[in-house]
Design a protein that fits this description.
Length: 237
């Protein structure tokens, strides 16, 4: 099985931690970088090949990961010279990718079964499989519904339930056909194109542990929780 890890972003929201380090290499706990945890998880799940899409401070990631042999994987690299969006880096990789593969962000802390996401993707034959997580959003205000300047409904501090993308996807290489290598391609653009073409993605619903380390408070939470969850996150790794 083959995975592509998207690790080219600047990590602007996580500054100052990412001033000198690429976001996937910020430390979690006393011994591990986020990217190391992900690579160990992928290896334990049976992935043997991984492509790292790198850009900002990519040379540091390359020096840290090397050829991946320390985790029992074969790792290669794709360098993003200019911002290409979430999925744009994949377009220049099509000839190096199998028919189906896993794509994920390099800053995700989760006990998701990555191999099962890819197996489900293959079984459903969907163009794209999106790992999803249920989130409840609390609104701290009274919410008004208006029509022609008239208030027609009111809800005091409601909660709204959403399914959000976890930043982990099963993808078919054929889904990228028709897009031009070297041009940006966002995840949102691909999903909207699939919906317009009546070829909807498949949702892989997950209820375990997931944390997207995108902001300083997320990073602080990850460090606070890692010791108690280490055996869960690195089981079999």
């Amino acid at each position: 099985m083959h995975a592509v890890i998207l690790a080219g972003g600047k990590g602007v929201r996580l500054r100052p931690y990412t001033t000198a380090l690429p976001k996937p290499l910020v430390p979690i706990g006393d011994q591990h970088a986020i990217l190391e945890i992900v690579l160990r998880q992928l290896s334990a799940a049976g992935f043997t090949r991984c492509t790292l899409a790198i850009g900002h401070l990519g040379e540091i990631i390359r020096a840290y990961v090397g050829d991946g042999s320390q985790w029992g994987m074969a790792v290669d690299y794709a360098t993003e010279d200019s911002p290409l969006g979430t999925l744009g880096p994949l377009l220049g990789l099509r000839d190096r990718l199998p028919d189906t593969f896993l794509v994920m962000n390099g800053d995700v802390l989760t006990d998701l079964d990555f191999a099962d996401v890819l197996r489900r993707h293959r079984r459903t034959a969907a163009p794209l499989t999106i790992a999803t997580y249920a989130r409840k959003v609390h609104i701290d205000f009274g919410v008004l519904t208006t029509d022609a300047s008239r208030v027609v409904a009111f809800t005091e501090k409601p909660s709204m339930d959403y399914h959000v993308s976890m930043g982990v996807y099963g993808l078919s290489r054929a889904t990228l056909d028709g897009y031009t290598a070297g041009l940006p391609l966002g995840f949102d653009e691909l999903v909207l194109d699939l919906l317009r073409g009546q070829n909807p993605p498949h949702a892989y619903e997950f209820e375990g542990y997931w944390l997207d380390i995108g902001r300083p408070d997320d990073y602080d939470r990850a460090n606070a929780e890692f010791t108690s969850r280490k055996s869960l996150l690195l089981k079999g790794a």
